[in-house]
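Hey L., structure's done. Input below.
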Amino acid sequence: MDNNRLILPLFPRVCALYVLEEDLSELNKIKTFKFKEIDTGSYGTNSFKVLEYFPFIKKLVMEKFYEFKDSVLLMNSTDFKISTSWGTKIEPGGMGGLHNHRNTYYSGILYWETFEGSRLELIDLFKQGIMVMPDKWNDFNYQHFHLNTMKNNLFFFPSEIYHRITTNTSQNTRYSLAFNIMPVGTFGHEDSTVTINIE
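Output:
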């Protein structure tokens, strides 16, 4: 409370960034996977179960997500599983189009190498109607968030957030590992209870 004024950040969309200490170099194998073109210069692996090939890293990702959901989101009694995982490839001049992820709860991205020339951009579409430019950006008025492609960065974000990969301005190809996470088992309340199983 300041000067009889209380600022309320209502309904925040909570994200988490971890810097991992483990060796993730085995993810370089993703570069040998088969990819299909999504947008011009933007590709995704044919497989949507890429983390099944990397059980150690899959376990590591879920350990960090459980730490996040139990200590920050306080969802200790709900279990979660990775529903899909895939590699992304952005060639020089390519970019990933604006999108969000449906039929999932949280999404994430894992970088195993640093890359300069392209970033992940998250955009708040709810603030796009009327354009009023602030004199200074802060936690209450920003509409875009950029995440650099840094080695061993693991990033979780709510799946409804729109995001894209900015144009690759370098002469190198950018790779990353993306995934979606869903609650599983029985959860909800009274007439909004549901049971979901993921293989």
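Helices lie at 55-71. The two ends are 48 Å apart (CA to CA).

-- N.
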